[in-house]
Amino acid sequence: MKKTRIIVGIVFSLIVFSVVVFFSLRYLVTKSFPQYDGELHLQGLHKPVTIYRDEFGVPRIVAENEHDAFFVQGFVHAQDRLWQMDLIRRAGEGRLSEILGTSTIKFDKLLRTIGFKQLAEQLEKQISPTSKEILQAYADGVNACIQLQKGKYPIEFDMLNYEPEEWKPVHSLMIARLMAWELNISWHVDVVLGELVARFGEEKAREVFPTYPENAPVIVAHAYNADDLTRLRQFAALHQEFKQFFGTTGTHIGSNAWVVSPAKSASGAAMLANDPHLGLSQPAKWYEIHLSAGTLNVAGVSLPGAPLVIIGHNTNIAWGMTNVMADDADFYLEKVDSLGADRYYYRNEWKDIEIIHDTILVKDSASVPIVIRKTLHGPAVNEIYPLDHFASSNLITMKWTGFEMSDELLGIYLVNRAHDWQSFLNGVREFSVPGQNFVYADAKGNIGYKPGVRLPKRSHNNPTLPVPGWTGENEWNGFISFDDLPQLLNPPEGFIATANNKTSNSVPYHISNLWEPPSRIQRIREVLQSKTTLDVSDFKQLQNDYYSHFARDVTPFILNAYRTMPVHDQRLEIVLNYFRNWNYQYSKDDVPTTIFETFFNHLLQNIYRDEMGENLFHQYTFLANIPYRVTVNLLNDSASQWFDNTATEHIETRDDIIRKSLQDAITDLSNRLGNDVREWRWGRVHTLTLRHPFGRIKVLESIFNIGPMEVGGSGTTVNNGEYHFTSPYEMTLGPSMRKVIDFANINNALSVLPSGQSGQPLHPHYTDQTPLWKNGEYHTLPIDKNAVEQQSKNILYLTPEE
Length: 802
Fold this sequence. Notes:
The chain is an alpha+beta fold. It is 39% helix and 19% strand. The chain contains 23 helices and 31 strands. The chain has an eleven-stranded mixed sheet, with helices on both faces. A hairpin with a 6-residue loop joins strand 10 (329-336) and strand 11. Helix 5 (116-126) packs across helix 8 (169-182) and helix 15 (549-561) packs across helix 19 (654-673). The radius of gyration is 27 Å and the shape is globular.
């Protein structure tokens, strides 16, 4: 009896302890949930402001003046995304190690070497008075929330034992440039092509790089060797690791956007669709918002940490963006004085290297001193790693248009307020980096296209390789003028579409070598051309389309490889029958999709890895659009030497490698998913998890992460579902938001995020949009005051503090 009482007592104590722990943890997580209803008095407001929130927590800020609108935008951003904003700010400053410890020292060194903080400080000095006023109002709003929430900050601050610092205007500029850096992937091409030329020579490198047909042939003016580029490859690898840490690991950094004229619209009004493709993580990249203040009335998505609406619409115009894929960076191989590491050679004279001494503070560890070196071309990126023999090594510097002075904030402000094509162009003109293709539609039925980008004028038409820095022959000679950039307004075709495809065949200057594979734009144009008129449901269906032109183009090579070959293996025959009857739709339940993607991964390995080696193969396949574009070209050249496996005495042909790759795929899938081919559904291997930085800790996964969930698509479908070739098949990149607008009913504008408005785990708006996004559904984002009031679920009244 006594033993029973002891057991009962222990069980009861454990239950009580568990309940206490549960509610204690729940309190720690939920104590920071923001106030959505009632009234607050805030110092810094000029006039009363009302915040209406709909069922998804999207705020509609109704203010009497623009200052208060931007103030409250900063306030609501901080209410829902404060830790996300603080983490990105710390990344830009190179101060992650102060809260995360030794594991992020390498990232801090990378980010301080690029110099985002110093760059933002320079930008702040030269931006327009309007931009300064907007940034200050926004910062004051963020700080009002920080003060209000003191002692009740989001759980991440408690777990890392620190508090947020004061927000400053320079932090918003820094975050904007950091996002531009995320979208800047052209320099990765320079690294990989430099390695290929050094390893194989120009002639053989031509075959496995998609850039040569785009512009004039590369004239290699410098003899490269692999040792020259080792540190550059390490720089690229560190950048990849940083992107993975921040959950932005995808490389199809593109988007879909299209507009149709009233002539092709079922409603008789212009229509627009946009879905930017970015690395998917948690919290979401974007924050939906509606700003109303006097004549300013704009809705769409904003960037936490920065004011204004980045992609959206007002009552007169709507706009969307895709990445230009601009070649906006060059590497320079500098010649260093062998008698002293503090000088470099340039145009027949020795110049002093700018040397900056800095210190990284590290949580629970000693501070780390670093040295940053710069030439007139930019920072020495190979200095991120210590050089054992610096005096005898090349100094490799990086020049990037993002280092130039510009005022994108003013440009976005002008676009937010634009009322017609010309006023819209006045805003786009201010946009330099990241280079974006702007698509446009308006209430009067006009549609248009114009890139906002700063393109360097170079002495060579194809500047893909790293160039000698000492001759002075590879300098930028200014930039292509805005008026000389391509432009479309009301084309006779009745629509404009962009999916990071080649901008133009007729311009006399270099834009990029980094175009996306044509599969997405082919499908978009195919659908838009196939119908006389289109409606909102057509746009929604196209944004969620899983058809792959790439798979359609490659599959015949598989079938032809077995055309005269007897097949005795039952599973192989089943697989070939799947391909013969495939509709090329990449749904999560599709079987041939799984087989094809597994085949293609093995095909890449069997074609390239034997000659490139593991490290170069990893770099080559990291930027996914390169092997996608190249491999189709190679398959059309059956005599290419790349098909031969150098590890065997036999000379393999194209069809040999295709057959081997398919057999490898069958073996791989049998081991992974079992022997029943019917069970090889794409969603079983192609899953998506929206990961929070804390979600990497096993015991916290279920609290901070969303998923895993089965998803369809791939890097070649309109509904992008990219995964890494180096670690298939988990989805890493896709639509970071979706937007559809029909000017026939502007209050029925559609929008959706992958997760939700809140960045705080367990909050109702942390995951509430995920089912919509996953299933191709949307919610409305009205702009009319009456419609906003009718949809509101919460109302918060803000008044100036007396």
